[in-house]
Amino acid sequence: MGSKLKNFGLIGLGVIAGVAGSMQFDASAQKTTSTLPLEELRQLADVFGLIKTDYVEAVEDKKLLTEAISGMVASLDPHSAYLDKKAFKELREGTQGKFVGLGIEVGMEDGYVKVISPIEDSPAFKAGLKAGDLITRLDATPVKGLTLDEAVKRMRGEPNTKITLTIARKEEDKPLIITIVRQEIRVQSVKSKIIEPGYAWLRVAQFQEPTVDDMVKKINALYAQEPNLKGLVLDLRNDPGGVLPGAIGVSAAFLPKDVAIVSTNGQLPDSKATFYARREFYTSSRSAGSDPLAKLPEAVKKVPMVVLVNTGSASASEIVAGALQDYKRATIMGTQTFGKGSVQTIRQLSPETAVKLTTARYYTPNGRAIQAKGIVPDLLVDETADGDGLNGLRLREADLQKHLSNDRDKDEAARKIDELEEEQRLAALEKKRKPLEFGGKDDFQLAQALNHLKGKPVQLSKAPKVESKKENTINEKKNGNGNGNGNGEKK
Question: What is 190-263+276-340+368-479's CATH number?
């Protein structure tokens, strides 16, 4: 049991932006039992020798070998990678919900970094950064021309080091120059509030080690404020994943005890596993004390639920959505998720370096493979009333080069899906959408979730739902004919 939790500790991770791989930690690389291809290894040695003797300038041995390892692993799929000292350190810090930086959630707008929200009590918050601020320069470097990932890396760094930001703010006539000292930031993975009497919003932004405990505190606070809760919206939009115990714990909070949450399958014996709604699967083996979920009110198991997802919902968030959908515990609403359904194993090569290697696929309780497909919502609802907004611009797992295939649904209607997504991207580009504040007054999908919980009509997506032949067969059986509405009824 303990080895399973150790080996499949992480399912997708992104700290400020982007989707990273699904991962497991292990102490050391496994020894290979297969016969080494000696002829190919000789060629590798020959190329190494040629570079050392014939290249235009001297190259360090370490650089050549590191790049060879990196290229070999990266050629497999989008989520396998070599982790150098810095990358491995950042990975471990991210799972604990902390990193060194400024403390802002960011996006891109017109080539600049846009502040979505400063994290409360962070250096950026204390320096006066506001939602909507555009960062135009990082020290002396113009932001135009940088990717979001490159800009984020520049804003992160060592504790107690300074960075000067040039800020464009709508109400200011001239740019603001703000110097901020980087500090360790602890990310709040769970947020909540009572939206209106009887209805609550619970957002998991990323699955981290403290997520289950944080969720329990937030739910108890909601029930203390609103004892007779009539409906709950679990918001997993743009949640890139994180630690697997967090996903199991969040699922288990709303499902019966001991039910299967997710299973994995790969070549290694340890990769063939099933994870259940039990304490040992969502708490650390080093944790002392009682089951954290035992502190939740019993009503949380039966409160009507809607789960909001979008193209940015990946990996661990897809596990939660898939489990709640399979058990019909909640209505899944929004747009088709990212489709990150593979597990990555972290094999340490040295105390400071590791290889992240894809070792398995994961499956919902009903055996559905999410890889390269994602979770299809029960009710398809766009990001805005007149289209899918910025969500239409996002890529999915199936768009990534060398992505792992879906091994249980060969008929993915790939061409139709690609055509539909391309139409949505073009429409979003034309309308020049701005980033959405989840949980805010203009959150259209949240408003539709509330309508559904109240039994009111829901404005469904204007884009048709693309189903595989397998799904159509299931729907025809349910409806008794082939005339069922693929989007479901308006409720």
Answer: 3.90.226.10
